[in-house]
Amino acid sequence: MDFFGIGFQEVVVVLVIALLVLGPAKMTDVAKTMGKVVRDLRRASSEVPKLLSMEEDDKPQQPPAPPRQQIPDQPSPKEPDAGKDKEEK
Prior knowledge:
Blueprint: H1 8-22, H2 24-58, H3 82-88
Helix pairs in contact: 1-2
């Protein structure tokens, strides 16, 4: 059994020291509080992925852009050569 990188014997030593420092009455209150904290953290950590996936689903999906139509190159209309007429006269 391995808790946060410490073995079973180390966990027992920490619990015995906590029992001596806090006393039996206070130790039960601390254990209850720690249990609630751990339960709330687990619940919150399991809800985070659900909330993130819901947030992604709520984002409006943009429709794909319509395909661009290619306009063929059109030759420009020819202008009458005004300069030629003047030169020929």
